[in-house]
Amino acid sequence: MPAAFLLGLPSTETVPEFAWLTQSKTIPKLHTNSIVFIGLRDVDPGEKKILKENGITAFGMHEVDKYGIGEVVERALDAVNPHRDRPIHLTFDVDALDPSVAPSTGTPVRGGLTFREGHYICEAIAETGLLAALDLVEVNPSLNDEFDAQQTVSVGCSLVRSALGRSSSDKREQSYSESIAGETLL
């Protein structure tokens, strides 16, 4: 929702509590050509309409399956940063991942990104050298049991490490199965 307001969707006339967004000249505003979504599924008709009417680039799981995550990431970068000369703010919503990978999230929907697809996105962004900001959202350990919470937190930490340039081949990196088992390798 914060991105929607920074995009001007909905207008501050519709939600007067956010009028301060238009009153301040220091608040940066997003343009629809500066945002892209990867891994969408379970998108309701109203959301589809907003994406289409505003020309927001979005890749659903159908595109990920059809083209592969590498091609989707390239297309996403081409859409928002064709010359690869602008800083990137990556918001990684863990509910884009399949709930078998990250179960402790607010909107677990089957058919999401795999562990490797999620990491590929982060690794590809790191390889650009343009990552300026990163946030990982929708990790909610209080929703499930301790095992599921630990799994989701471990995956989230691993995604952040990948986005910051740590290779999954780094010997200090925990593998997915090792983090699940609670073992730590140094």
Strand content is 5-15%
Order of helices and strands: HHEHEHHEHEHH
How would you write the strand order of the largest sheet? 1-2
The biggest beta sheet, please?
2 strands, parallel
List how many beta strands DSSP finds. 4
Characteristics of this structure?
single chain; about 190 residues; 8 helices; globular
Folded structure, characterized:
The chain is of the alpha/beta class. 40% of the residues lie in helices and 12% in strands. The protein is built from 8 helices and 4 strands, in the order H-H-E-H-E-H-H-E-H-E-H-H. The protein has helices spanning 2-6, 20-23, 45-53, 61-67, 69-80, 115-128, 146-163, 176-181, and strands spanning 36-40, 57-60, 88-93, 131-137. The chain has a two-stranded parallel sheet with strand order 1-2. A two-stranded parallel sheet has the order 3-4. Helix 3 links the parallel strand 1 (36-40) and strand 2. The protein is globular. The model is unreliable at 171-186 (pLDDT under 50).
